[in-house]
Design brief:
The structure is a single chain. With 167 residues, this protein is an alpha+beta fold. 29% of the residues lie in helices and 46% in strands. It is built from 4 helices and 6 strands; from the N terminus they run ααββαββββα. It has a 6-stranded mixed β-sheet, covered by helices on one side. The longest helix is centred in the N-terminal third of the chain and has 26 residues. It is globular, with a radius of gyration of 17 Å. 19% of the residues are buried.
Length: 167
C-alpha cells in the first residue's frame, strides 16, 4: 500500500511540475517550454477567447502577451486524479496582466481568476495535457497604479531564474 501511495504522489507531483512549467513558460516568454505542456494532438477551449489545438493556443497567446508590458500566472488548489497513464486535474489560476501605456498615458491592470480543467496522458514517461477547458470565474479591469518593478524580472531568458534553473 505504501508503494502505491508513493507512486501516486510521484505522478501527482510530476503533473504539478508540468503546470508550473506552463506558468513559467508564459511569464518568461519561453515558447519551447510552454509548448512542452500540451500533447501534439491536444485540444483546448478558452471559452470566447480561443478554441483549437494546444500548440495553436501557445501561438495565439504569444501574440496576445507580446502586446502587454507584463503578466504573471499563479496556480493554486490543484486536485489531481491519476488512473495509470491518464489523469484529470482542476487547478485554480490567477493571472495579472499589465497593458501597454495608451495614447493618453494610461495603463490598465487586468486580473483574471479561473480554473484549468485538464485531461492528461502519459507518453514515454512524460505527462502532457491532451484536453484543457478554461473556466473564467471572474475578472476585473482597473486603472494601473504602478509600484516598483525589479529589473531582474524579465520576459525572456535574461530573467534571474535562468541563472538558477538554466534552460
Amino acid at each position: 500500500m505504501i508503494e502505491a501511495d508513493l507512486q501516486l504522489a510521484a505522478e501527482q507531483l510530476a503533473i504539478r511540475e508540468v503546470l508550473d512549467n506552463y506558468c513559467r513558460g508564459l511569464d518568461r516568454m519561453d515558447k519551447p517550454l510552454a509548448r512542452t505542456v500540451f500533447a501534439s494532438d491536444s485540444r483546448v477551449n478558452y471559452h470566447g477567447m480561443y478554441e483549437g489545438s494546444g500548440h495553436g493556443f501557445i501561438d495565439w497567446v504569444w501574440e496576445s502577451h507580446a502586446a502587454l508590458e507584463r503578466h504573471s500566472h499563479q496556480i493554486t488548489n490543484v486536485l489531481i486524479e491519476v488512473d495509470g497513464v491518464s489523469a484529470v486535474s482542476e487547478a485554480y489560476v490567477t493571472v495579472a496582466l499589465w497593458t501597454l501605456t495608451d495614447a493618453a498615458g494610461k495603463q490598465q491592470e487586468i486580473i483574471g481568476r479561473g480554473r484549468y480543467l485538464d485531461r492528461w496522458r502519459k507518453l514515454s514517461g512524460r505527462w502532457t495535457i491532451s484536453e484543457r477547458e478554461f473556466v473564467m470565474d471572474m475578472h476585473s479591469v482597473q486603472p494601473l497604479q504602478r509600484g516598483e518593478v525589479s529589473a531582474e524580472a524579465r520576459r525572456d531568458r535574461q530573467d534571474a531564474s535562468y541563472r538558477f534553473f538554466g534552460g
